[in-house]
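User: Hi! I'm working on a homework problem where we have to compare a predicted structure to a textbook description. Could you give me the structure for the chain below?
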Amino acid sequence: MNRSGEKKKGVWLNIFVGNLSYTTTEDSLRRLFEQYGEVTSVRIINDRETGRSRGFGFVEMANDDEARAAIAATNARAVDGRTINVNEARPREERAPRRDRW
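Assistant: Happy to help. Predicted structure tokens:
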């Protein structure tokens, strides 16, 4: 928020969702979080080689208070047979470029 209390355009709270079932879809994750407020994006991370879910994803919500309520309500909740871990995503750390292994 800026000093006048208005939300800055384009600034969303990014939420990490871990321990997802391989059967969880982006649509089902969106429906889960929409119960708590406006969801601006959902992304489940897939393995590059197999295309299969890596078991975690990210949800962006437009309102910080709604996002924090969603985190509190969904952390340690059973979804598709797995207990999910939900918390505010940390910024991605810079890493050295990958080298070919062979």
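For your comparison, note the following. The chain is about 20% helix and 30% strand. The chain has a mean pLDDT of 89. Good luck with the assignment!
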